[in-house]
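This part of the workshop introduces the protein records we will be handling. An example says more than a description, so a record of this kind follows:
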Amino acid sequence: MTATPLRWILHLDMDAFYASVEQLDNPELRGRPLIVGGGERGVVSTCSYEARAFGVRSAMPLFQARKLCPRAVFLPVRMERYKEKSREVMAVLDGFSPLVEQASVDEAYVDLTGLERIFGGAAETARAVRDAVREKTGLSCSVGLAPVKFLAKIASDMNKPGGLTVLLHADVPAFLEKLPAGRIPGVGRQTLAQLESLGMRTAADVARQSAEFWSKRLGKAGEALYDRARGIDGRPVRPVVDPKSESAENTFARDTLDREILAAWLLRQAERVGESLRRRNLAGRTITLKVKYGDFVQVTRARTLKRPTNLTRPIYETALELLEELNPARPLRLIGVGVSHFGEGERQFSLLPEPEEEDRQREARLDNALDELRRKFGRGAVVRGKLFRPPEE
């Protein structure tokens, strides 16, 4: 009888990903505090470790980051470039295992179970993954290796940047004995406050209670908490995760009600969303408009089309109609467009194309031509007339 191989899950987390890509593209930025984010009133998307030394953190308002680190270099987000480097990273991981689950643009899970015979021991394989990513992409990553997904993710964060942390199966009980309860996935501020009120400081404290104890207090969330506290996580590494939506949004430097400015940004966002959908051969039926007022109150409006689309014009025109119907009376600080509910929509077949179908085909040819020109010469190579002089973000 063949023994079942020990389960090994690797979690890879790129180090200060956006900032690292900027420093890779511009070596003069290496060693300098660098902050990547959008607009004067946006938030920090990521920052270099040199900026973190001043207390700057992701999701921090940019105005606060400027106060903490006034000499930092501030750069806008270049998402297309980051996605390009992300694809390079995922291609490296595909060379080690057929089971790779991309969790975000800068992190992924890899199932290495049984592959240590090919690459050596599990720790050696994890080291090879980390080194291969640096060699092939020029970027640093941190790697965690553990029996289950959530422990691998925790391990990858323990020795940043460029770290490798291996949690052996035999060491899991001792690790959980010291793991703060707040590090258990799903434990937010409110749950942590409840745990602390009960004297639960570590995962082991949680595990010493019964499943019924936690189920009565937290319901299904309590059952999941109890499992995690004992190191149980049966989630597999899923190579294919179907996208549920695609969206783009922008925060303005100043709140505005100017319809020309709002319309220009809707068109720009419709282009970004449409191009991304076309590249992945996706189309959606529901168009969503998202706005946020100066007092941070957020409102969304949505409309479902008869057939799915990934064309810029119908996405833009639908979003513009939703904005007109909403008719905001107060200035907006943010506006965004999203497309969801991917799949086939209603379609009528005819021997001769109807005028509406001819228009759709013409729009598709235009969008595809613009996509191709931008892939070859950059996003600024060709601009629609309405965006020739776009307002500042």
